């Protein structure tokens, strides 16, 4: 039986380490202790969640309620808890300190195992309706009553959604492999399984039941896949040189939807795998009418105005939907879904079929008014590709997406199966999607919004670190500044994100959460930024400016340091 005290001791150890290898080994030792009925729960807790993201089950308890529970469990008053919190800046540290000095005398503590803790967390998460806040506080107080100070530190951070162990999904997968095989040889099949169901707890459970099952892991309706990602190149010639004859599709600037159907049941997932069916009643109805009994497909949804022959971008579409309401918009500017991939059909996992075959199915199946196949052509010459690219811009689209005819669907990966070619911003080579890790306050005219700029990082997939690549001070509208400031204030942290490599410090650090698209002129070598750093020199964006907030993108999808280096090399 895995005790939560052992888990907390490992979390404490992990916090003191930063190297991916040593963290993997520490975790692997813990995973060896877990049984088949514990590993799933342990993995979720490590990820800071209680169930896969698409389940919609969040632990999220507000600070106020956590303070109530801490006061009840420690015997201090709420005011005393708040005072300590003001000093420490972290309620996890506060509860630890206060429990060490626990005032209550009649103390009852019993050892908690991982399943007990998980079940209590689940109760806290799903308590709803009237009196639910009291229920949540009661469950949390009970947990804290039984907890040691160290356990309490992590319990409180967990319920607040701020566990932040600095252990990413790749490290957890490595550690599961090391725990079982002694090395990372099983990382790849484990990662593929994770990518086709986006539920690491489930994968770990299945793996502990039967390690071989992981190799035959199949796509299933209502278990969304991690979306395949696109690489980028900057000229048609580079694309043809890289993948030869390919399928060239229009790149629609809409909202990516992953649609699942089984019998009469339909669900739609966003790019971040949140459930979205309730937002698209018109699309849901159309999917229900599809002939296929079971199907999973992906497409880009955007509004089209047939009179003006014009597409509306994602931003415009959403803005209009908010203003006019879903019903009215559905009539006036019906959403079209341009279907660009099919992943599963009537019991058959299609992700390993070559794109060419999947495309044929799409062409046959999606010819409706709302659901239609994305526009695509077979191209083997750079000149032809360029023509289609120009055509897409003329139609008000973003550019094109070139697809390798032989490639499988690369769930969760960027593998040159898809290559994007986008319109450039002014002189800019391209854009980078980075995550905000810190911000600065405004001066002069901007003091009004108290917002002055952002520190942006990209992801180094070799060592699992975030690395800074730009400090952005322009490109924001006033509305964006206000919106950003409000959002960022809520996720301020005392310290820099644990897995961030940095040389400069912003005025405020924030939890890496919001992705933004950054336009820039070119890429330079920098001694300030740490992106792709070698011999104290990194890479940085020159004249970076905000293009847009990408709320549809998760932090897993940000540009990698390797991509920034590749863009730098392309410049030359
Ligand atoms: P980006 O967001 O710039 O990295 O480009 C990748 C995104 O383009 C995908 O996530 C889709 O949402 C979108 N997209 C638009 N049209 C297509 C298409 N024909 N094929 C694949 N993805 C597309």
What do these coordinates show?
By secondary structure, the chain is α+β, with helices and mostly antiparallel strands. The protein has 3 domains: 156 residues, DNA ligase i, domain 1 (Orthogonal Bundle); 194 residues, D-amino Acid Aminotransferase, Chain A, domain 1 (2-Layer Sandwich), CATH 3.30.470.30; 140 residues, Nucleic acid-binding proteins (OB fold (Dihydrolipoamide Acetyltransferase, E2P)), CATH 2.40.50.140. Helices cover 39% and strands 23% of the residues. The protein contains 20 helices and 23 strands. Helix 1 packs antiparallel against helix 2 and helix 2 crosses helix 10. The longest helix is centred in the first third of the chain and has 15 residues. Adenosine monophosphate binds next to strand 2 and strand 12.
Briefly, what is this?
The protein has 572 residues and is α+β, with helices and mostly antiparallel strands.
Keywords:
23 strands, D-amino Acid Aminotransferase, Chain A, domain 1, 572 residues, 7-stranded mixed sheet, DNA ligase i, domain 1, OB fold (Dihydrolipoamide Acetyltransferase, E2P), 23% strand
């Amino acid at each position: 039986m895995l005790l939560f005290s052992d888990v907390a001791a490992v979390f404490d150890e992990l916090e003191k380490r930063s190297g991916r290898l040593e963290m993997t080994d520490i975790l692997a030792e813990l995973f060896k202790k877990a049984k088949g009925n514990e590993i799933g729960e342990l993995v979720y807790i490590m990820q800071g969640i209680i169930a896969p993201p698409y389940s919609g089950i969040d632990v999220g308890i507000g600070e106020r309620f956590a303070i109530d529970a801490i006061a009840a469990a420690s015997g201090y008053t709420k005011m005393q808890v708040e005072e300590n919190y003001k000093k420490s800046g972290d309620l996890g540290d506060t509860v630890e300190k206060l429990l060490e000095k626990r005032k209550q005398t009649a103390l009852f503590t019993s050892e908690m195992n991982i399943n007990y803790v998980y079940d209590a967390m689940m109760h806290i998460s799903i308590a709803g309706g009237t009196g639910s806040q009291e229920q949540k506080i009661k469950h949390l107080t009970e947990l804290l009553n039984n907890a040691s100070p160290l356990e309490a530190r992590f319990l409180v951070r967990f319920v607040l959604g701020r566990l932040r162990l600095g252990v990413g999904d790749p490290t957890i997968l490595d550690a599961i492999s090391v725990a079982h095989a002694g090395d990372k040889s099983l990382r790849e099949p484990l990662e593929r399984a994770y990518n086709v169901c986006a539920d690491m707890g489930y994968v770990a459970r299945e793996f502990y039941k039967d390690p071989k099952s992981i190799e035959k892991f199949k796509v299933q309706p209502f278990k969304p896949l991690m979306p395949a990602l696109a690489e980028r190149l900057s000229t048609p010639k580079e694309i043809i040189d890289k993948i030869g004859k390919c399928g060239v599709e229009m790149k629609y600037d809409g909202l990516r939807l992953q649609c699942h159907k089984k019998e009469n049941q339909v669900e739609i997932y966003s790019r971040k795998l949140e459930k979205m069916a309730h937002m698209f009643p018109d699309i849901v109805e159309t999917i229900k009418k599809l002939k296929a009994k079971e199907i999973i497909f992906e497409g880009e949804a955007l509004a089209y105005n047939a009179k003006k022959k014009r597409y509306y971008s994602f931003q415009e579409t959403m803005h209009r939907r908010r203003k006019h309401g879903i019903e009215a918009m559905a009539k006036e500017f019906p959403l079209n879904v341009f279907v660009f991939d099919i992943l599963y059909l009537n019991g058959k996992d299609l992700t390993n079929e070559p794109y060419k075959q999947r495309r044929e199915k799409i062409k046959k199946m999606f010819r409706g008014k709302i659901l239609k196949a994305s526009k695509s052509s077979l191209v083997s010459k750079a000149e032809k590709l360029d023509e289609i690219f120009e055509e897409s811009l003329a139609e008000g689209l973003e550019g094109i997406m070139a697809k390798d005819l032989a490639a499988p669907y690369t769930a969760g990966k960027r593998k040159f199966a898809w290559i994007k070619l986008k319109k450039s911003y002014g002189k800019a080579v391209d854009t980078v999607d980075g995550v905000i890790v810190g911000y600065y306050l405004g001066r002069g005219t901007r003091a009004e919004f108290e917002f002055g700029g952002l520190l942006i990082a990209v992801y180094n997939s070799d060592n699992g670190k975030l690395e800074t690549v730009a400090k952005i001070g322009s490109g924001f509208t006033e509305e964006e500044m206000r919106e950003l400031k409000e959002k960022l204030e809520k996720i301020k942290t005392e310290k820099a994100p644990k897995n961030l490599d940095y040389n400069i410090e912003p005025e405020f650090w924030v939890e890496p959460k919001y992705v933004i698209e950054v336009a820039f002129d070119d890429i330079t070598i920098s001694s300030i930024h740490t992106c792709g750093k070698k011999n104290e020199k990194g890479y940085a964006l020159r004249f970076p400016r905000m293009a847009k907030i990408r709320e549809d993108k998760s932090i897993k999808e940000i540009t990698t340091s390797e991509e920034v280096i590749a863009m730098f090399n392309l410049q030359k």
